[in-house]
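Researcher: Please predict.
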Amino acid sequence: MALTGIQILKMLPKKNCGECGIPTCLAFAMKVAAGQTEIGECPYVSDEVKETIGEASAPPIRTIKLGAGEGAFTAGGETCLFRHEKRFENPTGIGVLVTTDMAAADVEGRINRFNTLCYERVGVMLKADLIAVKDTKGDEGAFTALVKKVLDGAAKASLVLISDKPELLAAGAKACGDRKPLLYGATAATAEAMAKLGKETGCAIGVKGANLDDCVAVSEQLVAAGLKDLVIDTGARTVKGAFEDNVVARRSAVRKKFKPLGFPTITFPCEITDDPLMEAMVASVLIAKYAGMVILSDLQGDTLFPLLLERLNIFTDPQRPMVVTEDIYPINGPNENSPVLITCNFSLTYFIVSGEIEGSKVPSWLLIKDTEGLSVLTAWAAGKFGADMIAQFMKKAEIEGKVKHRELIIPGYLASMKGELEEELPGWTITIGPREAGHLPSFLKEWKPAA
C-alpha cells in the first residue's frame, strides 16, 4: 500500500537541509508520496528506509529499463487504467523482429529501416525503439553473430533476445555488454535457469506463458527466486486473446495489486497474422490497451507512422499542454527588413505556423508568446494573450533592435485586438494576418513594410 507524505516524513532525518533540491523534508515527503521524486534523492536517508519506501511507493506496474545511452528504453511505471485518471507514463515500445534464418539482405533492410524511419511531430521525434533478435537454429555462433550485427548497425536500438535455450541468451547478453537486453523467454521448464541468468547478467527476464495462468505461475517462481525486473507474455496469439489478457493483467495489477502481473507486457503481432496491414491493426489495438512492447515482422513507413502517431496521442499527458519556449524564432534567415509575426506557444500552433513560413521561403521573425499552452482564441479568451501582455513581451524580447520597420502581423482571429495593440505599442503598425496558417505563404510573399 502506498505511504502518505506524513508516513514518509516520519522516516526521514528531518534536517531540512535542502540538498535534495526541495526546501523542507515535509515538502520532499509529499513529492515522494505523489511520485514526483525518488526517495533516493535524500542524501541522508538509510538504505533500509530507501527499500521500505521504495517498495511501498513503487507503481503497480514495475518500471523496466533496457539498453543504454541514446538507445535506452523504459517500459512500465504505470499507475492507472485510464489516461484521464492521471496519465500514462512510458510509451509502448515498437520493435522489429530479425531471426537467425533470415537472409543477410533482409536483416540489413530491417536495421536500415529502423535507423531511417524517423518522423518529427510537434517537436517530438517519433521512431521505433526495439529490435528483437530471435534464435531459430539453436546455433550459438549464428545467434551471437546476429546480435553483434544488430548492435553495430543500430546504435539507438534496445534489444530483445529470444531463445528457448538459456545458454544462448547468456552468450547474447554477454555480447550486448552495457546495452542490457531483455532476455526472453522463461517457461516453467526453464524458470530456474533463467532466474540464475537474470541474477548473473542483471538483465530483465521475459516470461513466456502458455496462457495467463501459466504466466502467473512462472512469474511467481521468478519473483520467489529473487528477480524483480520481468516482462510478461501471456502466450495469447489471437487479437481477442492478447487484448483480453492485457486488460486482465493491468486491472489485476492496478486494482488488486496482484504482483505476479505487475509488470509490462510484451506482445507479438508478428505471430498473430501474416498480413502486414492486419498486423498494424493488431498492434494499434495493443498499443491502446496496455502493451508495454509490440514486436512487428517489419517496419514500413505506411504502417509505422500511424502507430507512432497513435502512441504519441495516447501517451501525451492530457493535463499538461504541449508547449514551446517563449522566444523570437528566426525562420529562413531573416534580416532587418523581414516581417515580424506573433502567435501562441501551443506546440501544434507553432509547428503549423513555422512550417508554413518555412514553406513560403520568406525570411521572417516569429514571436512566440507564452500562453501556457493554450491556442490563440482560447488564450485570448482566458486573458493570457492580451494586448498589454503582447506589448510587454515585445519589449522584453527587444525585437525593435532586430528590424528597421515597425509592423507586427497578428493572427486573423485577433483582429478585434488591433486598436488595443496600437495603443500599447505606439509607433507600431498592426497588420491583421490570415485566419488560417495555410494562407500565410501567399500573404508573406505579397507583404511589404508599411510606409
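Model: The chain has three domains: 5-57, 64-315, 327-446.
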